Each structure stands twice: as C-alpha cells, then as structure tokens.
C-alpha cells in the first residue's frame, strides 16, 4: 500500500487540497477494495477516531469526482468504492455472499466498448456486471447437496 506521502501526492496531482480525512479515506479505499461506506468509515476511524460520517462522505464524493476513486453500485447493493480507476474493468458479484471481484475487459465477439447500436453516443466507458456464485459459495453449495 502506498505511503501517506504518496496519497498526498495523488491528491495534489488531482488539484485537491490535502486533508487528513481525504488521506485516510484514500488509504481505506486502497486497503479495502469494493468496501461500502460504513466499512470505509470504520477503517478511517481506526486511524482517525474523530472523523465524522459527513467528512468521509464528502471525501468519497470529492475523490470520486477527481477520478482517484471509483464508485460502483451493483443492483441490490449499497454503493461501494475502489481505487482501481481509468481502466474500464468490470465486476463479478456473488449472489450468495455478495463478494465482488474485478474482471478485466470482457472478451468475446463484441469488444467491451462496442455497442451494437450506439444511437449516436460517443461511448467512453462500459459497465458490465457478471453474476453468479464465488468459488467458496459454489463449493459450500455442492457439499450441502451431497
């Protein structure tokens, strides 16, 4: 995980003011990919106990708007945050436990950024969510049925 100075450089590189909550939130998101807001608040408070919920929410919004953090929200899930940005990756979501895993660009007949009919849009990002059961849940399900 990058050091605090690296987080400060990332914030400055995005033309953001360096604040303790922003540094702490950036560190928490990097350490806990796909974490929800409550989990991020908990992680931030371990190192910065006095931080308010609002400071964390504001930091997440600012970091997302600056492109340092990505907000995802699979159907039926609360918003989650990740530090992997700018590469148009996708996600796998386990229907049983909710685990979320990164998936590099979808492959197959149609490239992931090519819509069959773009209706005149200039497409710059595609969001694909694959649903299924993670290995742990698949194994647990098959051992229960035997």
From TrEMBL:
Pfam families: FUR. CDD domains: Fur_like. Zn(2+) binds at residues 94, 97, 134, 137. This is Transcriptional repressor. Keywords: Cytoplasm, DNA-binding, Iron, Metal-binding, Repressor, Transcription, Transcription regulation, Zinc. Its cofactor is Zn(2+). It is found in: Cytoplasm. Binds 1 zinc ion per subunit. The keyword Ion transport does not apply. InterPro entries: FUR, Fur_C, WH-like_DNA-bd_sf, WH_DNA-bd_sf. One of its GO terms (molecular function) is DNA-binding transcription factor activity. Belongs to the Fur family. One of its GO terms (cellular component) is cytoplasm. GO terms for biological process: negative regulation of DNA-templated transcription; regulation of secondary metabolite biosynthetic process. The keyword Nuclease does not apply. It comes from Catellatospora citrea.
């Amino acid at each position: 995980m990058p050091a605090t100075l690296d987080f400060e450089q990332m914030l400055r590189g995005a033309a953001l003011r360096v604040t303790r909550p922003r540094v702490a939130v950036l560190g928490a998101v990097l350490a806990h990919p796909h974490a929800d807001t409550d989990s991020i608040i908990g992680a931030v408070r371990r190192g910065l106990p006095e931080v308010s919920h609002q400071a964390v929410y504001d930091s997440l919004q600012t970091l997302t708007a600056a492109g340092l953090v990505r907000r995802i929200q699979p159907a039926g899930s609360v918003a989650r945050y990740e530090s992997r940005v700018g590469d148009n990756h996708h996600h796998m979501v386990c229907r049983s436990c909710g685990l979320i895993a990164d998936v590099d660009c979808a492959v197959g007949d149609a490239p992931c950024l090519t819509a069959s009919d773009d209706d005149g849009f200039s497409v710059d990002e595609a969001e694909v969510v694959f649903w299924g059961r993670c290995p742990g849940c698949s194994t647990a399900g098959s051992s229960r049925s035997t």
